[in-house]
Amino acid sequence: MSKPHKQIHLAAHFPGVNNTTVWSDPEAGSHIEFSSFVHFARTAERAKFDFLFLAEGLRLREQDGEIYDLDVVGRPDTFTVLAALAAVTEHLGLTGTINSTFNEPYEVARQFASLDHLSGGRSAWNVVTSWDAFTGENFRRGGFLPQDERYSRAKEFLATAGELFDSWHGDEILADQATGTFLRDAKAGAFVHTGRHFDIHGRFNVPRSPQGRPVIFQAGDSDEGREFAASSADAIFSRHATLKEGQAFYADVKSRLATYGRRPDQLLILPAATFVLGDTDAEAEELAKEVRRQQVSGATAIKHLEFVWNRDLSSYDPDGPLPDIDPDPGEHHIARGRAQVRMYRDPLAIARTWRELATANNWSIRDLVIETGNRQNFVGSPATVAKTIDDFVQADAADGFILVPHITPGGLDAFADNVVPLLQEKGVFRTEYEGPTLRDHLGLAHPDDVRSERVAS
Question: Which residues does the UniProt record annotate as the domain Luciferase-like (predicted)?
Fold first, then answer.
């Protein structure tokens, strides 16, 4: 007996701090004006996507001590944007990345509980840690924590926020939600937490929200990050978007759930994915090449190479060969505030590999950066892209994808109009929303139901 087809989950990432948006395209719009967010969100909701996803940038990026002028300048505050979008959408989930290193549990829990009320149960929190002292300079607690300390704080941060969400629970919810008046005195909202990172007690002042807690996302790919997701998250935001890598990551993370008394369906794997559509596969391939060259100008290529070399390479020709000098393996001082720096933990080995690729393919600096860093995940006609996405999900390489278009805010329109209907025809994507909350969209149980199930077992 064949197993039933899995339902695909789709989300839309409004690409805030990035270097993948094609700004030279006349359709490229503002990343600040609210109209851009409204267009993007309404397109996602029209296509019946699960949620909209906002990343976070807590400091402008710098390159060799100067503001990096080939990237997005910044973005409005996440909670402000999501709260405003709650008023112009009805079903779309609203997911925000909020840092656990430079915030406090009470403040973040209060903001997410409020957003969940305002949106009717559509909030989600992507829990991240900060990795660099550069960002920390913007905050009272300057500097950064070692990796094990970051996850230690993040785990306690999330657990503490959970205690605050749960402080209004069951019979203790004795207030008239419509008027905000108490029916009688109670212990509603009372909490006490004493731990290594937080020592707080008091009363949480936001009553139990429609989802009980926001949906929890996690984005770390390290072993600590995978374990954190298996223990505490509802979904994991992955960067593994090839079939083989996706299947390995999927199997690894799902296998960790049993340790925490969880089932495989209680954690969704949702990689980020870019796409380029054309009327035919050949047309899409040509367009994808053009998009990659628009994303990586000569100046951008040199800046990207500096991430690895940790040297000023401004004198090099982007259409010439790679530098004959080796990277500086010391403390990184060229590129600051960029996540890519973390990915190159052995710059000397990366440089050797890149030189071999460049020599074998006769690539210039710009060619190399294009070919190693900006290949789209899904390229083809709508039918080809729909089939590829479905194949990935059915092969357990993902539970769905968080789509990142290269044009904002209109880059999602063609996918919504041409790919989504094909997935609906296959019977693997919804034609209507299943319920009012984001947990309904994602097929996740309410926290109270999960708690009752664990008690019963």
Answer: 23-395
Q: Structural domain tally of the chain?
A: 2
Rg (CA), the chain: 23
Given 373, 388, 414, the domain boundary residue is: 373
pTM of the model: 0.89
373 Cβ partners below 8 Å, 6+ apart? Answer: 296, 304
- Residue 434 belongs to a domain: yes
Give the distance, in angstroms, between the CA of residue 61 and the centroid of all CA atoms in the same chain.
Answer: 19
* Distance (Å) of CA 352 to CA 347, 359, 361, 410, 454: 9, 11, 14, 40, 52
Question: In whole angstroms, what is the distance from residue 35 CA to residue 327 CA?
Answer: 43
CB 82: neighbour CB atoms within 10 A? 25
**439 in the same domain as 322:** no
Distance CA(133)–CA(312), nearest Å, equals 21
What sign does the dihedral 222-226-231-232 (CA atoms) show? positive
**Shortest CA distance to 56 belongs to which of 24, 100, 22, 91?**
100
- What is the per-residue pLDDT across 278-301, written as a single tens digit (0 to 9) for each? 999 999 999 999 999 998 889 889
Q: Report the mean per-residue pLDDT for the chain.
A: 86
Question: What residue type is assigned to position 351 of the chain?
Answer: A
Domain-located, residue 287: no
Per-residue pLDDT reduced to its tens digit, 380-392: 999 999 999 999 9
Burial 207-220 (b: 16+ CB within 10 A, else e): bbbbbbbbbbbbbb
pLDDT digits (tens, 9 = 90+) for 389-421: 999 999 999 999 999 999 999 999 999 999 999
Q: Which domain covers residue 440, as residue numbers? A: 9-279+376-456
